[in-house]
C-alpha cells in the first residue's frame, strides 16, 4: 500500500508562498541558466521566483528535463505523460539525473538531498517530489510499476475479462496500458467484418484501473486494508467517446481519485491512443470495504506449557 514518506529533518523546508524580491540581476542570472531551455520554461521559472506559486513548477520541470533529453525523445514529453520512465523511456542515466538536479536547484533556489533522488523513477515522480518540496508536504511513495503477473495476483477480475497489460500506481493516481490484439472474444461480433473496441469495455478498463488503485495505491485508514472482494461499480457520469479504437491500438489509461471515503470512491478517468484522446469519464464511482481484522490467537490453558517437574533430592 502507498504511504506518505516523512523526509529527514531539514530536507523538506517549504518555499515561501508569498511574493519575493526578484531583481533584474536575478532575472539575468536565471536567463543565463536556462539559455538552452524553451522560452516557456524561462517564463514559468520567472513567475515561480516572483510569486512562489507551485502551479508554475510542472512547466519548469518538464522544460529542464527536456533540455537534457535526446532530441528524438523530446516528443514523448509533449504528451504530458507522468508515467514516462526516466531511464527506460527517456534515457536519463544517473549522471544526467545529477545534471538535471543541479539545474533545478539553481533555477528554483532550493536544495535537494541526494538520498531523496533514489526513488524518482518517472516524470510524475519528479514533478510530485518538487511540488511537495515547494509546499512543505511529506514526500509521497514513488510510483510502483506492476507487470501483468502482479496485477493478476491482486485483482478480483481475471482473464479473459482483464483489460490491463501493465500498470503503475502512486498516491496520486494510477496509469495502465492495454493493447487491443484483435483476439478478444467480443470482437467476433462487434462489428461484422469491422472489429471495434466497445466503448463500454473501455469504460470497464478504466473501472478496473480504479480497482487496482484502491488495492495497491490508496492510503487506507490506519491499520486497515481494502478487501478486493468488496469492490463493485456503482455509477458513472460525463462519459464521452472521442475516437474509434481498433486492433493494434495501444490504450493508455489514467485515473485520478477525486473523493475516497469508505464506502465510496470517485475517480476521473481518461484514455488516449498516442496523443489522441479516445475517451473520458468525468466521474466513475466504486463502492468498497475494508477486510476484517485478523483475529489474534488466544492462548488457552491446554496450550500453556506444562510446569517443569522437579526431582526431589535426598540430603
How do the helices and strands line up, and which of them pair or pack?
Layout: E1 4-5, H1 24-33, H2 39-51, H3 57-68, H4 74-77, H5 94-108, H6 123-135, E2 139-140, E3 144-147, H7 148-154, E4 166-170, E5 173-179, H8 199-216, E6 232-241, E7 250-261, E8 264-273, E9 276-287
Antiparallel strand pairs: 1-2, 3-4, 4-5, 5-7, 6-9, 7-8, 8-9
Give the oligomeric state: single chain
Q: Topology as H/E string?
A: EHHHHHHEEHEEHEEEE
Uncertain runs? 1-17
Protein structure class: alpha+beta
Total domain count: 2
Describe the model.
- The protein is of the alpha+beta class and 315 residues long.
- It folds into two domains: 137 residues, no CATH class; 144 residues, Hotdog Thioesterase (Thiol Ester Dehydrase, Chain A).
- 29% of the residues lie in helices and 20% in strands.
- The protein is built from eight helices and nine strands.
- The strands form two sheets. Strands 3-4-5-7-8-9-6 form a seven-stranded antiparallel beta sheet. It has a two-stranded antiparallel ribbon with strand order 1-2.
- A hairpin with a 2-residue loop joins strand 7 and strand 8.
- Helix 3 packs antiparallel against helix 5.
- The longest helix is centred in the middle third of the chain and has 18 residues.
- The termini are far apart.
- The relative contact order is 0.11.
Amino acid at each position: 500500500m502507498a504511504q506518505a514518506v516523512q523526509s529527514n529533518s531539514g530536507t523538506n523546508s517549504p518555499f515561501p508562498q508569498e511574493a519575493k524580491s526578484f531583481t533584474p540581476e536575478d532575472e539575468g542570472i536565471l536567463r543565463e541558466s536556462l539559455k538552452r531551455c524553451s522560452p516557456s520554461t524561462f517564463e514559468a521559472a520567472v513567475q515561480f521566483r516572483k510569486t512562489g506559486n507551485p502551479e508554475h513548477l510542472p512547466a519548469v520541470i518538464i522544460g529542464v528535463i527536456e533540455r537534457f533529453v535526446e532530441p528524438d525523445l523530446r516528443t514523448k514529453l509533449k504528451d504530458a505523460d507522468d508515467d514516462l520512465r526516466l531511464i527506460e523511456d527517456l534515457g536519463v542515466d544517473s549522471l544526467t539525473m545529477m545534471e538535471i538536479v543541479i539545474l533545478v536547484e539553481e533555477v528554483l533556489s532550493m536544495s535537494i538531498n541526494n538520498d531523496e533522488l533514489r526513488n524518482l523513477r518517472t516524470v510524475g515522480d519528479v514533478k510530485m517530489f518538487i511540488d511537495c518540496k515547494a509546499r512543505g508536504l511529506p514526500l509521497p511513495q514513488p510510483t510502483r510499476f506492476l507487470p501483468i503477473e502482479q496485477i493478476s495476483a491482486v485483482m478480483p477480475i481475471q482473464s479473459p475479462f482483464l483489460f490491463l497489460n501493465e500498470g503503475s500506481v502512486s498516491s496520486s493516481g494510477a496509469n495502465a496500458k492495454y493493447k487491443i490484439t484483435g483476439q478478444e472474444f467480443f470482437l467476433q461480433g462487434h462489428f461484422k467484418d469491422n472489429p471495434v473496441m466497445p466503448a463500454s469495455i473501455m469504460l470497464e478498463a478504466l473501472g478496473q484501473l480504479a480497482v487496482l488503485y484502491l488495492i495497491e495505491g490508496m492510503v487506507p485508514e490506519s491499520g486497515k486494508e481494502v478487501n478486493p472482494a468488496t469492490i463493485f461499480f456503482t455509477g458513472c457520469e460525463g462519459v464521452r467517446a472521442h475516437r474509434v479504437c481498433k486492433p493494434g491500438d495501444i490504450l493508455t489509461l489514467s485515473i485520478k481519485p477525486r473523493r475516497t471515503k469508505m464506502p465510496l470512491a470517485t475517480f476521473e478517468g481518461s484514455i488516449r491512443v498516442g496523443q489522441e484522446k479516445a475517451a473520458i469519464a468525468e466521474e466513475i464511482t466504486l463502492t468498497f470495504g475494508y477486510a476484517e481484522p485478523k483475529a489474534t490467537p488466544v492462548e488457552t490453558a491446554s496450550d500453556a506449557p506444562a510446569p517443569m517437574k522437579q526431582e526431589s533430592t535426598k540430603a
